[in-house]
Amino acid sequence: MEKQIEVILSEEANDVYIYLKQNSLNSKEDRMLVDAIERIFQIIKREPFHGVPIAKKKIPKYYKERYGTRSLFRIELPLFWRMLYTVRGQEIKIISFIVDILDHKKYNKKFGYRNK
């Protein structure tokens, strides 16, 4: 039996996704982001480990505490945005849990990087 793979968004990621989707009718940039996010959802459903793994020691405490994240993957989106997700496995189902969708400035802040 093949494992079922499901993509679920956190409340935070869902709020950003809905905001971008609503603005995508009037904003070319938001439309580009929505299209990329939806393509990534399909890729993750086929290949749940598609993203770039983030070293365990670099995973922000926020994600560890809020989502119990022990592994985190990053996917680059257009306009320097990022999608962060974790993979939770069971015998029959794999869940790719999108924990955040954020722009480069917010990504740097969460990971403790300084702007130069």
Sheet having the most strands: 5 strands, mixed
Query: How much helix is in the residues?
Result: 40-55%
The CATH architecture is 2-Layer Sandwich
> Approximately how much beta-strand content do the residues carry?
25-35%
Write a compact overview of the structure shown:
Helices cover 41% and strands 28% of the residues.
Question: What's the topology here?
Answer:
Blueprint: E1 4-9, H1 11-23, H2 28-46, E2 52-54, H3 61-67, E3 72-76, E4 82-89, E5 93-102, H4 104-111
Parallel strand pairs: 1-5
Antiparallel strand pairs: 2-3, 3-4, 4-5
Helix pairs in contact: 1-2
Walkthrough of the structure:
The chain has 116 residues and is α+β, with helices and mostly antiparallel strands. The chain has four helices and five strands. It has helices spanning 11-23, 28-46, 61-67, 104-111; strands spanning 4-9, 52-54, 72-76, 82-89, 93-102. A five-stranded mixed sheet has the order 1-5-4-3-2. β4 and β5 (93-102) form a beta hairpin. The chain is globular. The N and C termini lie far apart (51 Å).
List descriptors.
116 residues; alpha+beta; YaeB-like fold; five-stranded mixed beta sheet; 28% strand; globular
